[in-house]
Amino acid sequence: MAILGQIRNRPWLLMGVIALALLAFLVNPDSIDKVFGKNPDVLGKVNGEKITREEFNDQLFVLQQQADQQGQPKNGLEEQAWQLLVQSKLIKQQFDKMGFEMTDDYFWNQIQYDQMFAQNKQFFDEKGNFKTQELKKQIEELKTSSAEGYNQWLKTRKSVEYRIMARQVFANISTGITTGKKEAEELMRQRDQMADIDFVKVDYTSYLQKNNIKVKTEDLANYIKQHPVMFKAEPSRNIGVVFFPSKPSAADDAAAQKEITKIFSGGTDASGGKENFQNTTNDSMFVMANSDMPFNNQYLKPNQLPQTLQSQIATAAVGQTFGPYKEQNFYVVSKLLGKKTSDSTLSRHILIAFKGSPAGEGVTRSKEDAKKLADSVGAVVKANPAKFTEFLKLSNDPSSAAQGGSLGWTTPETPFVPEFLTYLANNPKGATGVVETQFGYHIINIEDKKPGALGYKVANVVKAIKPSDATEADVDKKARRFIQQVQGKSFNDFVNIAKKGNYQFSNPKSAKRFDGQLQGLGTEKDGEILAWAFDKKRTKGDTEFFTVDGTGDKIVVYLNGKQEKGLADPESVRDQIEVVVKNKLAAKQIADKITAAKASNLDQIAKLFATTKQSAQVNLLNPSVAGSMEPKVAGAAFGVDKSKLSKPVEGGTGVYVLIKKSETVNKQPGDLKQFTESVSQRSAGMFGQAWLKSLQDNAEIDDYRIEIWNKLGNQQQ
User: Fold this and answer.
1) Rounded distance, CA 692 to CA 91, Å?
2) Cβ–Cβ under 8 Å, residues 236 and 559
3) Any idea what DSSP says for residue 266?
């Protein structure tokens, strides 16, 4: 098919415009601007450069299409879309500062290296040359034939341009990372210089097992103040969540089993008890009338069948029934309707497209003319297959035409249009025929066939095990009783009552407005809960009740804290830093005890903490001490005088006191040039992401999304 057809067949390559539901509005933007003071079409700024709603929607659409293609959830991508836009703006700003310009020539010169095109053979000829002129021609044709398609290309081009700019910027900054001769010599000296030490380690874990240290909120706050860059916080909410799943009861399970048994061997109510799955003469209609899942008319491989059937199907006779059996949350009965060998087919084709067909870009012939031409060519090739290649120049599928018309080996599972697969399945090796599909008329020649594995057609009647009305009512009763118990209570009460009732509890401590999903929950109500939590009317201690549409699940939420932009709230990051802070408090206690004891040797310190003296050899570039990376200890080993007791060293895994016994040089292989090159390569590899993070940390980023949504929400109420 044409190159742009390849793009259209891959939705993740297109950047379309979608409506972002949370920010949608149906009033005049100018009037909103006057009322709210912020243009709702501008979601933020990066160093003064606007991020528009349209840009955001385009980026979100791309991510959703990628997720859909990969079988991943499409919701919860709003924050990722925002971050990608911010980074794109920062990259473009650096691109401009470096004096580069995204000219048309530069774009077409670089497009072949972009991830969208570089790994797709359809965009390259047999010699590996990118089909630049062919792609340009088709875009020009698209410009006159389809305004919508051309608009999609322009949006696709914008995303490609950002990636081209990023590649150029990173290449430039990486090239500038070098290692000087003196720096390399110093690093080599540090690599080769070894220190032999005796030391005593007071391990934090062992110490804390004997000495209980509680980390107060004040301790966490002090640590955050000492490391402000690490704890720059965006607006978030601390939310308590109790989930009441509407699960089928034992009685619901028994009811589903009874129903499937009646369908299988008893008789349906619609037939007056006469027809069942075993005696029915119309299996497809019976499945359509009695199953929670539709009839599948395809032949499947054993591994595509329900797991219970996979080991039995090979020896089963046509007409044999199975069940009832249970598969996850379903009861199933099955019947083998047929067996068929799934042939692999080697074929080639010539496509004659017509005006208006998906492959008909630039084609002026009518459908009738296309059929006449295809029938004429088909008759010649059928009489003499050797003439097939003479007509390849007529094909409107240049990709296969370049390969002699070949489509390679295919099976019934190959994602071809049904008419094409039907012809391949029903005709022998050597057959030639004309087949009509949505793309036009195909002159198909079957070059070879070989038998494949057996496929099985199976009719399945499926009954979902669902919670009954009584079960859903019981879940609703429990959830409403719980919210009554916790209203006006503290968060500790909320947690304790949930645990006492053995309810499913989770606590997303730093939920962002546009995360889309809540950690520990993951329902279609997550976005609505986040909107509730970020409503400016919400105050700490508020509770709310939610019902998940379609499942009957209930959710009770509690707003436990509000984090606005600035330094992180200490309690919101307790899980992340409590161990580190506790170790630092332990380190101070240990150091104070060593100082107070006035110990003059390692044996006294070892006895003081009931531990042992150890030995190690360390250097600065590989600061491993007894299996732990301890750069401060290695630094102390080279900083202390020989045979002199060091001061207590606060390490990552414990407090160390050491004595240096000797220093030696262990010269390693490799000359200065090789070492310099390896250091430069390693530094360049590490620099890229660190540079981008630094760029983002120091940028002036304004995010208006929450403010705009709150104001629009109030206007709509």
Assistant:
1) 8
2) no
3) I
CA distance 270 to 285: 13
Give the end-to-end CA distance of the chain in Å, rounded to a whole number: 51
Q: How far is CA 556 from each of CA 254, 493, 501, rounded to the nearest angstrom?
A: 30, 14, 14
- Cα–chain-centroid distance for residue 129? 33
Of 307, 319, 310, 339, the residue nearest 455 (C-alpha): 339
pLDDT band at 697 (very low <50, low <70, confident <90, very high): confident
- Contact of 625 with 634, CB cutoff 8 Å: yes
Look at phi and psi of residue 135 and say left if phi exceeds 0, alpha if psi is from -120 to 50, else beta: alpha
pTM of the model: 0.58
Q: Is the CA virtual torsion 592, 593, 597, 598 positive or negative?
A: negative
Model confidence at 542: pLDDT above 80 = yes
Residue matched to tokens 């099955």: 334
pLDDT tens for each residue of 120-141: 777 887 777 888 888 888 888 7
Residues shown for the chain: 717
Tokens read off for 61: 């659409």
Question: Residue 135 corresponds to which tokens in the numbers above?
Answer: 């792609």
- What does the block give as tokens for 678? 């390896």
Burial classification of residue 710, based on how many CB atoms lie within 10 Å of its CB (0-12 exposed, 13-18 middle, 19 or more buried): middle
How many CB atoms sit inside 10 A of residue 514's CB? 23
Please list the alpha-helical segments (H only) found in 176-314. Answer: 181-192, 204-210, 217-226, 250-261, 283-290, 307-310
